[in-house]
């Protein structure tokens, strides 16, 4: 695997840490800036909305730039807004930095994915995707707990400074390792051509499935703390351990999927999604048993991110003539799920359905994703039969 692909993973690690670290910093931010906890929570929502809206917009704006220039620009903006965020005493300015940082992060993600795939070559696409997505899983295991620890020791601003500092060596490495032009040497397709390519029904259905899978993942992940403390019976000190366990499973799943999905993508997606649906239901049923809960948290982390990696690779396979915009739509679908899943889980909790309710919502979302995958298979078979009929010679008369 080219060194530049690992550099992209490092940059994604820094940005992934920023995306998720606020969960451990909200109280200190609210107290320091004299706002409510709900207002501080909007900082997380603003980042998610910025990622969803920013992915296609920034990719469309920067699609004609050389990829190294685009990556450095997006990463430079990301560093700058974190410096501003660390210095400001205004909630409004901090909220604006989260939106702008999300826009930069979304643009970086879209370009990083297509760059990694181009550098790795057609036979290592899933492995390259796994390295980039692996940056997010390492952020969950290392970056987010480290950010929470820095916030506890030196205040929430220290976590913002740390994200900016970690991004600087990534920028230097990008400058040295990523080629200055288009890595694949392919001509640049027109914007209208790429957008038309994204209107293909199978691609749109794949993006929907991807959003459902991520929605299921983050629905439960966002409410693991009340599940393990109120249902499983663990003390509060176990929460970081359980979250880290999910992250370890995620990293293992991404790594394994990267090695398997290039050869058998359909099997990885089909088996992974079926196992996820069964696993969420099993976690909902057995959450009161500590050993079962811990094992399933680890397993579900591996299945969720492993399947997600294979789905991202499938998106690029379905849109070979629109790589940059396909990467942006994959990023948007990921974040639609990351924003919608916790919202649905919160509705279930607010309805008084109990602390297992978000896990049942995850299982339901996976059932919908499986239905979408079945529709994909049906449409694929129909297309295959149509093509075969067209190629079959007409009978002689």
Q: Topology, pairings included?
A:
Elements: H1 3-20, H2 26-33, H3 37-62, H4 67-87, H5 91-120, H6 125-154, H7 156-177, H8 191-197, H9 201-221, H10 224-232, H11 239-260, H12 265-286, H13 290-318, H14 323-350, H15 357-391
In whole angstroms, the N-to-C terminal distance is: 57 Å
Mean pLDDT equals 82
Query: Helix fraction?
Result: over 70%
Number of helices: 15
How many beta strands in the DSSP annotation?
0
Alpha-carbon Rg, integer: 21 Å
Helix and strand succession?
HHHHHHHHHHHHHHH
Proportion of residues in β-strands: under 5%
Oligomer: single chain
Shape: globular
List unreliable stretches of 5+ residues. Answer: 183-187, 383-388
Structural class computed from helices and strand pairing: mainly alpha
Largest sheet: none
Short note summarizing the structure:
This protein has 397 residues and is mainly alpha-helical. The chain contains 15 helices and no strands. The termini are far apart.
What does this structure look like?
- With 397 residues, the chain is mainly alpha-helical.
- It is built from 15 helices and no strands.
- The protein has helices at residues 3-20, 26-33, 37-62, 67-87, 91-120, 125-154, 156-177, 191-197, 201-221, 224-232, 239-260, 265-286, 290-318, 323-350, 357-391.
- Residues 183-187 and 383-388 have low confidence and may be disordered.
């Amino acid at each position: 695997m080219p060194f530049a692909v690992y550099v992209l993973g490092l940059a994604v690690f820094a940005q992934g840490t920023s995306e998720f670290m606020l969960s451990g910093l909200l109280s200190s931010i609210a107290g320091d800036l004299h706002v409510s906890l709900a207002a501080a929570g909007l900082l997380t929502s603003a980042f998610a909305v910025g990622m969803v809206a920013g992915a296609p917009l920034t990719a469309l704006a920067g699609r004609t730039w050389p990829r190294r220039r685009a990556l450095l620009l997006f990463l430079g903006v990301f560093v700058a807004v974190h410096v501003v965020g660390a210095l400001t005493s205004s909630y409004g300015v901090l909220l604006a930095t989260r939106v702008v940082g999300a826009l930069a992060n979304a643009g970086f993600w879209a370009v990083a994915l297509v760059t990694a795939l181009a550098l790795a070559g057609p036979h290592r696409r899933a492995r390259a995707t796994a390295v980039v997505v692996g940056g997010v899983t390492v952020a969950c295991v290392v970056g987010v707990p480290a950010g929470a620890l820095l916030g506890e020791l030196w205040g929430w601003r220290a976590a913002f400074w740390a994200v900016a500092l970690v991004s600087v060596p990534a920028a230097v490495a990008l400058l040295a390792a990523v080629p200055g032009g288009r890595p694949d040497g392919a001509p640049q397709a027109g914007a209208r051509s790429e957008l038309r390519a994204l209107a293909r029904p199978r691609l749109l259905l794949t993006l929907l499935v991807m959003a459902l899978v991520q929605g299921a993942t983050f629905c439960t992940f966002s409410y693991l703390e009340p599940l393990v403390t109120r249902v499983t019976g663990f003390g509060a000190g176990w929460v970081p351990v359980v979250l880290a366990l999910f992250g370890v499973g995620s990293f293992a799943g991404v790594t394994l999927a990267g090695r398997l999905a290039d050869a058998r993508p359909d099997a990885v997606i089909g088996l992974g999604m079926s196992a996820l649906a069964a696993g969420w239901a099993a976690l909902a049923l057995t959450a009161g048993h500590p050993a079962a809960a811990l094992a399933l948290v680890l397993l579900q982390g591996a299945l969720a991110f492993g399947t997600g990696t294979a789905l991202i690779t499938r998106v690029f396979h379905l849109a070979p003539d629109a790589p940059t915009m396909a990467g942006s739509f994959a990023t948007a679908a990921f974040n639609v799920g990351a924003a919608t899943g916790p919202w649905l889980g919160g509705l279930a909790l607010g309805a008084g359905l109990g602390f297992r309710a978000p896990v049942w919502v995850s299982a339901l979302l996976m059932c919908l994703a499986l239905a979408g995958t079945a529709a994909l298979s049906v449409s694929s078979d129909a297309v295959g039969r149509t093509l075969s009929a067209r190629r079959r010679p007409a009978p002689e008369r």
